[in-house]
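Subject: sequence -> structure tokens, single chain

Hey, anyone have a minute? Need the predicted structure for the following. Not urgent.
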Amino acid sequence: MTDPAGRVVLVTGGARGIGAACAAWFCAGGHRVAVTFRGDDVPAPPPGTPGERFLAVRCDVTDPAQVEAAYRSVEEHFGPVEVLVANAGITRDTLVVRMSEEAWHDVLETNLTGAFRVAKRAVAKMLRLHRGRIVFVSSVGAFVGLPGQANYAASKAGLVGMARALAREVASRQITVNVVAPGVVETDMTAALGPARVGELVAMVPLGRSATPEDVAAAVGFLASDAAAYITGAVVPVDGGLGMGL
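Reply:
Had a minute. Here:
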């Protein structure tokens, strides 16, 4: 998968947090990086990245037409996607007894079905290339069952089953499909839980600290690298030991 011009990388949900850190990691490696975003602020290239090697594409992964349009834009600028980081995700936390049908549907539609859409579109071209890397961003919440996150945990656990099924489907074409499962990460999504709750979660981490988005990006980058060519269907925890043994 070595390419002196850099591979074509697509990071969904790349405007901030883990997605932005992944984009920066690949940009630093000389790759051509596209990110999707939904908000009003268009992501800028990471510091030191030439503008021609970075592309920001507006895309809501819950809309199949927008997913197709995003891929066409990336292909027109850079060529077919060789590395996909399926990171886009949301939360709608509340106890099951209070959870609305809408809150359940929105989280599953974004986190799981949205990841299915972007992976399916990437695989179509990767099969022709006989190479590719797909990395799904799951969560330790898929395994430890944090209260108030039944929808989120279900969506993130679903990514593991989907990744392993897909890994078997495409392995003969030298395409790998893996999962990273972050724990408590210093992002806006985590901060929204409030200082008290974040403190409780960090207290459960054997390493005694939150992860940085860069910690997660390093694991994603490894799984996308030549060094991980013989790893597929794996779940790599980046959680400081929080989910140890699960």
